[in-house]
Structures are given as C-alpha cells and as structure tokens.
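so my prof wants the structure for this chain in the tokens format not the other one, which i didnt know existed until like an hour ago. anyway here's the sequence
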Amino acid sequence: MAVTSGQLPAFPENGPIQAVERVYVWELPVRISHWLVFFSIGVLSVTGWYIHSPFWISRGSGAFTMATMRFTHIVAGYVFLSAILLRVYWYFAGNYWASWRFYIPSEKQRWTTMGRMAKYYLFLRREPVRDVGHNALAGLAYTVIFIIMVWECFSGLVLYSQVRGPGLARALLGWAPRVVDIQYIRLFHFLGMFALLGFAIHHVYSAVLVSIEEGNGLIESMFSGYKFVLEYELQEREVRRHIILKKSLPSRIGRWLSERKRRQKPA
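here's what i got, hopefully its the right format
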C-alpha cells in the first residue's frame, strides 16, 4: 500500500464496512517471551509467597519443602530473566509492532489515542481505539510493568547473591545491600509480586474485553501470531512507518549528506 501523505487516516466509526486482512503481528519470540513471563510469574508467586510465609509444613524426616520451594523459585527466576532479555532484544530486532516505539509514546498521535483509550476504560467512550499492535495506553502501562519486572530480576539476584556466597552474583551485586538495607530490598521485592499479580488480573480482563469489542482475534493472536485487521489500520501503519523512517537517525544523516553533496556540486 503506497503512502502519499503524512496525515494519519481518520477512524471510520460511521463509515462503510472495511475489508479485513489476516496479518502476522506477534512474532514467535514475542509469544515465547509472553508465555514464559506468564508461567514464571505464577511459579514465582507461589514459591515466593511460601518463602516469605510458609503456608504448608510437611511432616516426616525426609521432608524439606523450603529447599524445594527455594530451588524452584531460583529456576523460575532465571526463566523469567531469560524471557525479559529476549523481549529487550526483540524491541530492536522485531517487526514494526514489536518495536519499543509502541511502548514509549514518542508521537503526538499516540498521546491523543491514549486519552481516548482512558475515556473508554472510564466508560466515557463507547468504542476502544483500534490499533494493530498495542494501543498507546496499554503500551505505557506495559512500560511501567516492565520496569517493575526489571526491579524484580535485579532485587531477586541481589537476594540470591547473599545466600549463594562468593561468586559472580556477589561480585556484580554485592554493593547493593551496602547502599540499601537488605530487608528493604526483600520487602519491595515481595511487594513487586503483588503489583505483577494485580496487573495480570487486569491484563486478562482488558484483553478479553478488547478482543470481544474489536472482534479481531486478539486472544487467539497470542497463540498463532495473527490478527484480523481492517484495511484502514494497515494504511495507518504504513503512514506511521513512513514517518518513523523519515525521523530516524540514518535517514537524517542520509539527507544531510545529500544536501551537503548538492551544495558542494559546482554550478
């Protein structure tokens, strides 16, 4: 689809019926990291809560439930960390919809749609803002949650370094308890679990709601990668891509070199 204008197309709320296309939106690394985060948060929450306050005491001379919980927590923590690192890499290596630009509202149009989506969640607007990838409000929320996830990884490694003893973890993170008391690190690591659990509940609710409202296969897309997209949404994507490429550093350098070469060319 050719891009002939820098203006984003209007949302056709009352316009004619649009053609629908099946578009590959969520690439495999995005889906892998999504489900690894989902399952690891579940395991980390159960085991972490047990470590904080044991809710089940096993009987018998061979029972060592705490050791099992701690080992499971550590393994799940490394899975969680691996998923985060994979997603960070794919912010820059993935397709248009996996880009970091969908999480940090760097365009005026994203701020506008963020306000519209906030009105939708506050029951001040009947229709959600349609977007092929994450809408602006969801992207900003994911950014906040991602920061909490990074904190959970960092604080978890700090706590692990204290019980692991001398080694790489202690060498890299041993400074943290000297800056902030280890009890505060442990407390906010535990509170971060509740933030992630609260987000998970809202995430499931909003995903189901928007999937029903838009009818675009949002839930199914996290398994297949494909969404059903209206024609005007693809047109909007092309315009945005054109604007982003025009503003990118390589594009600006190329235009500067071309202008410099043009000026140096003899008349």
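also thought this was worth mentioning. The beta strands are 20-24, 226-230.
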